[in-house]
Each structure stands twice: as C-alpha cells, then as structure tokens.
Amino acid sequence: MSAGGGNQLISVLPEELRFQFELEKQSFCDLKVSNNTENHVAFKVKTTSPKKYFVRPNTGVIQAWDSCVIRVTIQAQREYPPDMQCKDKFLLQSTIVPPNSYIDELPQDTFTKESGRTIEECKLRVVYLSLGSGQGNEDMRGLDTNSNQTFQRLKEERDSAVRQTQTLQQELDILKRRRYRKGDPSFSFTFAIFVGLIGLMVGFLMNLSLSSPPIEVSQSTESSPLMDPPLMD
Fold it and tell me: Which residue in 22, 75, 137, 206 is a FRET match for 120, CA 20 to 30 A apart?
C-alpha cells in the first residue's frame, strides 16, 4: 500500500522521505501521520537500514482523527552514494487498538500476523536531494539571507562608529594644536573639559562597535535509534 491511497487507517505526508544530502552532516525529514478513523490506531516504523537512521518516535498510538509527526534523521555519511540514488526503504505498519491504549502496554506481537489483527502497511522510499536542488533549500536560503542582512547591518554600524571616532580624533588634534599656539589659562581649562567629553564619546562608540555579538546558528536533532531488524525484500 502506498502512502497516498484511500480508505486507510492512516495517511502519511510527504509520500516519500526526502533528505538534503551533505557529507559529514546529519539531515532529517518529518512525516505527518494522520489517523483517518474513529478508532485508536497504533503504528510502528521499520527500515532496511536501521543503523543508518534514527526515528523518533518509531512506535506510538494516535487517537481518533488525530495526527502526529515522526522525525527521521539520517546519520552523517562519509561518501556520496552512486548517482545520488538510495535503495533504503521504510515500512510504516498500523493497526486498530482498544481505546486509551498506551504503546508500552500493547502485546509484543501487536504488529505481527500471529496477533490476529489486521495490519496495514505503507511503504516509503528514500530520496536524496543535492545542495543544488530546489526542494529543501528554501529554509536554508532564508536563514542565509537573514544572517547576511544582520551581518551587513552590524558591519555598517561598526564602520559608522569608526568614521565618527576618526572625525573626533581629527577635531581633538586640531584643538591640541590651537592649545599650543595659545597660552591662555582659561583656554586650557575649557580645552580640558572638551577633551574629556570627546573621550567619553569615543569610548562609547568604540564599545558599541566592539560589543556586537557574533551570529551563531545551531541546530540540534533529538532522535532515538531504530532497533528493528532490516526488512526483507
């Protein structure tokens, strides 16, 4: 059964797992699983490569007409696959369970034919997206654009503060030369006050130009390992 068929216990979007593939970096894909019935439905996720992916949650119970999000994370890879093609597959099993059921309380054979339950299966294929592909890049481009705009704004503020500091320094040098040419004591006192004010302004501008915090973008992915054995084709 495919992900987008009708009259199913659950529906899954998107209908395939798409990962932005980049060497030495993790990537994830979120699946929205919706319960299309008035019953409680339990689900379980299996894959042909359990050591390669983390799935959270890999099992669960969805209430009537409700939905949940499953995050599938691919481990960081050291080499590109041939022709960027992936043969990995995922299987999403689902079955009706009693109301108010908890996944930890279900029998271990819930998702086996021996349980006597009707088990529906939804197969999902895996697609790798390169950095040059259009899909999966919109959020990344938006993040890069915002970061560049913020960096440019901080750079302009720093340059403006530097220019103002240079202007004040030039004015200070002019006042120093005038002071040496004039021997008026009252001028020296006024000059001292003015120099003090300029010094405060220079210190404030330098502090403003140097106190802009660096921009950091962090990303954390919380996931749990999928321990089911590989599927058999």
Answer: 75
Q: How far apart are CA 59 and CA 43, in angstroms?
A: 5
Q: Which residues neighbour 66 within 8 Å (Cβ) at sequence distance 6 or greater? A: 34, 35
Separation between Cα atoms, residue 54 and residue 33, nearest integer Å: 17
pLDDT tens for 183-195 read: 555 555 666 676 6
What the block records as the tokens of 149 is 């705009």
CA distance 139 to 173: 51
- Are 74 and 18 a contacting pair, CB within 8 Å? no
Q: Tell me: the pLDDT tens digits for 84-111?
A: 899 999 999 999 999 989 999 999 999 9
Cα four-point dihedral sign 58, 60, 65, 66: negative
Q: State the Cα–Cα distance between residues 17 and 47, nearest whole angstrom.
A: 12
Q: What is the largest CA-CA distance in the chain?
A: 108
Half-sphere exposure of 50 (CA within 13 A, CB side): 13
For residue 189, the tally of other CB atoms under 10 A from its CB is 10
With H, G, I as helix, E, B as strand and everything else as coil, classify residue 92.
strand
- In the chain the first and final C-alpha atoms are separated, in Å, by 15
The pLDDT value given to residue 207: 64
